[in-house]
Amino acid sequence: xxxxxxxxxxxxxxxxxxxxxxxxxxxxxxxxxxxxxxxxxxxxxxxxxxxxxxxxxxxxxxxxxxxxxxxxxxxxxxxxxxxxxxxxxxxxxxxxxxxxxxxxxxxxxxxxxxxxxxxxxxxxxxxxxxxxxxxxxxxxxxxxxxxxxxxxxxxxxxxxxxxxxxxxxxxxxxxxxxxxxxxxxxxxxxxxxxxxxxxxxxxxxxxxxxxxxxxxxxxxxxxxxxxxxxxxxxxxxxxxxxxxxxxxxxxxxxxxxxxxxxxxxxxxxxxxxxxxxx
Amino acid sequence: xxxxxxxxxxxxxxxxxxxxxxxxxxxxxxxxxxxxxxxxxxxxxxxxxxxxxxxxxxxxxxxxxxxxxxxxxxxxxxxxxxxxxxxxxxxxxxxxxxxxxxxxxxxxxxxxxxxxxxxxxxxxxxxxxxxxxxxxxxxxxxxxxxxxxxxxxxxxxxxxxxxxxxxxxxxxxxxxxxxxxxxxxxxxxxxxxxxxxxxxxxxxxxxxxxxxxxxxxxxxxxxxxxxxxxxxxxxxxxxxxxxxxxxxxxxx
Amino acid sequence: xxxxxxxxxxxxxxxxxxxxxxxxxxxxxxxxxxxxxxxxxxxxxxxxxxxxxxxxxxxxxxxxxxxxxxxxxxxxxxxxxxxxxxxxxxxxxxxxxxxxxxxxxxxxxxxxxxxxxxxxxxxxxxxxxxxxxxxxxxxxxxxxxxxxxxxxxxxxxxxxxxxxxxxxxxxxxxxxxxxxxxxxxxxxxxxxxxxxxxxxxxxxxxxxxxxxxxxxxxxxxxxxxxxxxxxxxxxxxxxxxxxxxxxxxxxxxxxxxxx
Lengths: 278, 252, 259
What we know:
The complex is a heterotrimer of chains A (about 280), B (about 250) and C (about 260). Chain A has about 280 residues and is α+β, with helices and mostly antiparallel strands. Chain A has helices at about 170-175, 180-190, 205-220, 230-240; strands at about 5, 25-30, 35, 40, 45-50, 50-55, 60-65, 65-70, 85-90, 95-100, 105-110, 130-140, 145-150, 155, 160-165, 190-195, 200-205. In chain A, about 15% of the residues lie in helices and about 25% in strands. In chain A, strands 9, 10, 11, 12, 13 and 14 form a 6-stranded antiparallel sheet that branches. A 4-stranded antiparallel sheet of chain A has the order 1-5-6-3, with no helix packed on it. Chain A has a 4-stranded mixed sheet with strand order 2-7-8-4, with no helix packed on it. In chain A, a hairpin with a 2-residue loop joins β7 (about 60-65) and β8 (about 65-70). The longest helix of chain A is centred in the C-terminal third of the chain and has 17 residues, at about 205-220. By secondary structure, chain B is α+β, with helices and mostly antiparallel strands. Chain B has one domain: GHMP Kinase, N-terminal domain (Ribosomal Protein S5, domain 2, 2-Layer Sandwich). Helix content of chain B is about 25%, strand content about 25%. By secondary structure, chain C is of the alpha+beta class. Chain C contains 5 helices and 12 strands. Chain C has helices spanning about 10-20, 100-115, 150-160, 200-205, 235-255; strands at about 35-40, 45-55, 55-65, 80-85, 125, 130-145, 165, 175, 185-190, 195-200, 210-215, 220-230. The longest helix of chain C is centred in the C-terminal third of the chain and has 23 residues, at about 235-255. At the A-B interface, α3 of A face β3 and α4 of B.
């Protein structure tokens, strides 16, 4: 049984958050009829016999000319140009497969990297379990997700850690105009790369990383309540803001990456040197 | 499932129309739903319905394993219904049995009827239903739990899928049979409704009913599903209206 | 086969933190996550419990049914332990026949109950050589967030201590409480570099360099052990872990029995 048609790809991201106070947000559930007020039904909706219904659980957003439902849960649904953090799950002769928390693994082709690689040499550059920051380059109707490592601030990361957040909470982590992420980087001295897929890469002192993890837990658990920024600020303030000689972090979501280098398996670098200096 | 020795058939319906647990013929057993009961799954729900305790989890859409099951134009929906060994009076041997496999199949197809599977080609949406305590109607409780879990996992679908069984006890059509009524009644008919369209996507029946009784049973089942639908929606609102994110306590 | 791959930098970070006595979730090296039990969770069983350790949740149901004793132990009851690591509980588990991982969990839990003589099997005998009670201990994992062995063992001991021998149902007299004579529980540790942490989370299990489970009883005996995963422990490590296991075990026994 197929009912009507769907409004297209669902989207997520800061721009999707309704600019309203929390009290005005409307939660809709699959199957719930939506009063479109003359607007076009958009993502997260479907139409049957001239009526519009929600297809996903989420917040109703009326932004002329479109009415849509912004999902509050679920896997990461890729959008072109999104920056995401992924884990290498497989190495093939001309590409790697990345787990980016999306419905499918995303192939990163060797031509989508700054490295000059011969066929069959992919394994010298990235290994299973490596963490990379990539951008969504292409989406095709078969569900294939093309990603690239070519672009500012993209590349393999070394050191630091990964913290996961529901993709739907990423806009709260960034905050209005980047306010939340700015506060986090300043208060903890950590470098933070926010993947739109809810994988967050963090590097800094062990203390700083523990505090970022705790702040992210607050955002995960209380991300839908108002006053989140104040509560996170309260937490960071009460757990000691002095991070010694660690300077303020870079711009939110924009980690500075050195041009990635091929892996040198014979590398005898000092593992005790602390967070990688990039 | 009976235990050792033949038992006498209990009186399922009193002269004043009350059932063995005091319910009216059109009355549901108490139903409690917790959305987001587990930490590892993409979506989950715990359902306590009468003496049934059923947990459901959804993983996906995700890569298909084994790969040959992959469909090029849509997601596949794979449900696995399973009963814990200790969920019934007589210990159930763990592992696959024909009953569980049939139930898994009809539930998979019911959900594929309402999920917008074409949005996620070449992926799998996996639904796991674990019956921890059984007292008739576990497949309906499983569908209700799985449906809330699917919404919790952000899966796009036509509607939630309320589900209930209608049966015949002591000659009367009754909603939501419990174990004794299921064992000693004359008919049992589980169903699942798409409230948006008013159509059924799961229907099974076993026993004896006249055409007239079947008609009344369907009407009563649809009415029951509509009540259950409200409980399902409330469970999701409770999780997402305020706060949310953290898994809630089971049975708390 | 699992298709889950964890980021290597997460494991490295866990090891780095452990070097200074810290853990991802803020716990100390010798701290458990919050532990709780709910006896009687699955009422169709003769004894049952839901046990939680942090986000890990395990249900155990005990079923008692008459059966035949084994020919070599005609005067003893039969004890069977089975653990189901169902795919509902974690993306890494898939449907199908039991994975060696599930079999190991089953057998380690079984060993503690059996070697620790939690129940007096002789008392389960009805007619020597002919009829005895068969005690099925079924452990059902519903949320795998690490340390299944301790959660399963705690659920099993709680279920056993709250179990009833259903004699009436099988026309064998009146119901009576299942006679539990000892209280074995398991305590699991993982090596993270030089640190050895108790109650590993899932991330810690994936990053660890060896796992050691020590089952203790209330009388000061070690009754079962299992070293698992890739890694090694020195005799000195094991001696000091046994001391820690007794301390944690005593607390777990109180939780299981509601004392």
